[in-house]
Amino acid sequence: MFRRLALTAAASAAASLAVLAAAPLAAYAEPLPSAPLPQMPPPAPDGDRLTVTVSDAGDGLDGTYELECHPQGGSHPDAEGACERLDRGTGWGEDPFAPVEPKGMCTMQYGGPATARVTGTWAGRPVDATYERGDGCEIARWDAMVPVLPGLGS
Question: How far apart are CA 130 and CA 85, in angstroms?
Answer without folding.
Answer: 17
